[in-house]
Amino acid sequence: MDMPETMRAVRIAAHGGPEVLEPAEVAVPAARTGEVLVQVGAVALNNTDLWTREGAYGRPGAPEAQSGWRGPIDFPRIQGADVAGRVVAVGAGADESLIGRRVVVDPAIYDSAGPDANPVGLMGSERDGGYAEYVTALAERVHDVTDSPLTDDQLASLPTAYGTALGMIERGRLREGETVLVSGASGGVGVALVQLARARGARVIAISSGSKIDSVREAGAHEVLDRARGIVEQVGTVAPEGIDVALDVVAGDLVADGLPLLREGGRWVIAGALGGYRTTFDVRRLYLHNAQVIGSAMHTPAHFELLMKLARRAEIDPVIAATFALDQAAQAQEELARRNHVGKIVLRP
């Protein structure tokens, strides 16, 4: 196909509020050696978008410093980690048979080759992302999902939310028959955790609030606790024997309050800090019970490959809360920040 020379995109030129999201006409990026060019069908929003825009990640030794996902951002930056679309061109050395294929892009930038590499960068923060009509990606990071019955909106919902959730579940070694506590269960990662943990055969106890409780139950939670009431007391009622694994995107006081709920050998996995990044807890609850606190950032290539197998077979059913046009990116991010929705918010370039 004849490629246009320019495309619509939404970029940030500085950290700040939604007003720093600027629609722009920019050059269509060229696929370099080993890369492909993807025409974006849908791009999903994540808390990562908000925190990168705000510069809210801090840096080692400087928790209040403005920073992207893993360090200073090279402005201007096109946001958006989660892309589903079609490959329309390939660079030197890339597989030409990918042209025309429907793909999901793994947004992680890894520290090494191999299936267990650690993510040290993210599309939309450390390289340009999918708030655009086209985006480049390494050929080895695009996954062919042409035959998946999921829509582009649903496929775009997978990389960060479901990738993060699967990374948490794998690093927490969740097994069939175990009891799992999921915090922030109405958010993108939370819904993914509920669905994936349920599919693994765990008993899922989710934490949500108010009007979202029924939706979280519909997503597959066996029990839903109201976060406005005492979590420890509620867990004591529905799981008096305790929990095996906590999958936590809230952190803050929940860690201190919740660690004593872990059974012997329990694992508390943290992948977010919606409730605050500082916490204090009694270390005796760790070593006396062989418990573990595990940090989990996104996924490995092996985790993402497993996620794509689930997507091809539609063994997961991503929930779409709302869709917006590309030039409505600021409104979409404001909607995300209000947290009144259940599931994923998607832009359609």
What does the secondary structure layout of this molecule look like, with pairings?
Layout: E1 6-12, E2 21-27, E3 35-44, H1 47-54, E4 77-78, E5 82-90, E6 102-105, E7 108-110, E8 119-122, E9 134-138, E10 142-144, H2 152-156, H3 158-171, E11 179-182, H4 188-199, E12 203-208, H5 213-218, E13 223-226, H6 231-238, E14 243-248, H7 253-258, E15 262-270, H8 284-287, E16 292-295, H9 301-312, E17 320-325, H10 329-338, E18 344-348
Parallel strand pairs: 11-12, 11-14, 12-13, 14-15, 15-16, 17-18
Antiparallel strand pairs: 1-2, 1-4, 3-5, 3-9, 3-18, 5-6, 6-10, 7-8
Helix pairs in contact: 3-4, 3-9
Please, could you describe this protein's structure?
It is a single chain. Strands 3, 5, 6, 9, 10, 17 and 18 form a seven-stranded mixed beta sheet that branches. This protein has a six-stranded parallel beta sheet with strand order 13-12-11-14-15-16, with helices on both faces. The mean pLDDT is 95. The chain has two domains: 6-161 and 299-348, Quinone Oxidoreductase, Chain A, domain 1; 173-295, 3-Layer(aba) Sandwich (Rossmann fold), CATH 3.40.50. Helix 3 crosses helix 9 (301-312). With 349 residues, the protein is of the alpha/beta class. The chain has helices at residues 47-54, 152-156, 158-171, 188-199, 213-218, 231-238, 253-258, 284-287, 301-312, 329-338, and strands at residues 6-12, 21-27, 35-44, 77-78, 82-90, 102-105, 108-110, 119-122, 134-138, 142-144, 179-182, 203-208, 223-226, 243-248, 262-270, 292-295, 320-325, 344-348. The chain has ten helices and 18 strands. Strand 12, helix 5 and strand 13 form a beta-alpha-beta unit.
